[in-house]
Amino acid sequence: MRAPDEQGAFLPRMLFLPPTGHGYGEDDGAPAAVGALAGEEYDLFGPACEDGTGLFWYRWITGHQVSFLLWRLLGDALERSTHRAPTHREREAMAACVDGYSAMLLYSATVPREHYHTHIRVRMALQHPAFSGAWASDYRPLRPLFRARFPWQSDPSCKALREAIAFNHAMHARIADHLVPDGQSLLQQHPGGTGVSGEAEDLFDNFFMTVRRPVGRSALIRQLNSRIAGIAADLARNGLYPQVEGEHHPVVPESSGDALEHLAVSVLRLSHRAALLSVGTESPLEEAHL
Q1: What does the alpha-carbon distance between residue 208 and residue 22 come to, in Å, rounded to a whole number?
Q2: How far apart are CA 257 and CA 47, in angstroms?
Q3: Which of 2, 6, 208, 217 is at 20 to 30 A from 15, Cα to Cα?
């Protein structure tokens, strides 16, 4: 886990991933076990935040990095199912990774709207005026899954996976409404911008502090494990929605009474469960599935 620095700030760090479409590098022999969470509970509405710029930058980078790691693990399970329907364990791991990804969408998007537009969105535009999530290379192999293109997805055994994907789409829409209510992404504002290319993917990786090089699976799991621990430390200190300039800025209304509200109290459980199931460890957190 990356502990806060002397000033109490949480600092993002470099993420190392194998090139998209390449297998894992040689493992270093270290165990890939997922550690236990120090605590799963946190306050939804936290205390006043002294350094919102630093905290929300940490959340934006770290939440996306955890998503990338979960995408890689989801892609592993999907690749094993290229010529056959996934096993029960693979379906369970896939659904857990999708739910963990939804949790990271929420964690990343806890930035207040005004702060997002004056800080984070500006940084993305400086990276490229048409900066787009479509440039995420690790998501590319997953598009058929999220668009229900695999014949086996209609099988009754995939009900939990279908529900997880449908919820993920709903979470995307909720976050878009929270951060960009006018619906205009950077790419939509610059329709003549670069399309998906190797250069665009490199720009995306660079922005999210991601380096492509041979990485063993154990090292990948350790990176996931340490980031979940860092998120747990952040939430324990700051709550999910820190107070900024005298106000809280919830992404999901506390009284919504739906699965989106349940997600707000399950960020740690869902991301941790995804890591556990992806390394083949039996998870005691079945109730955390949305």
Answers
A1: 20
A2: 24
A3: 6
Is residue 27 situated within a structural domain? no
Record the pTM: 0.91
Quote the CA–CA distance of 203 and 197 in Å, as a whole number. 10
Tally of domains within the chain: 1
Question: How far apart are the C-alpha atoms of 227 and 224, rounded to whole Å?
Answer: 5
**Amino acid at the residue 29:** G
Q: Which residue has the higher pLDDT, 124 or 7?
A: 124
- The residue range of the domain holding 226 is 35-280
pLDDT for 183 equals: 67
Sign of CA dihedral 228, 233, 239, 245: negative
At 266 the pLDDT is: 93
Predicted confidence at residue 79, as pLDDT, reads 87
For helices 217-238 and 52-80, angle between their N-to-C axes, nearest 10 degrees: 140
Whether 23 is covered by a domain: the verdict is: no
Residue 175 in contact with residue 260, Cβ under 8 Å?
A: no
Beta bridge partners of 247: 244
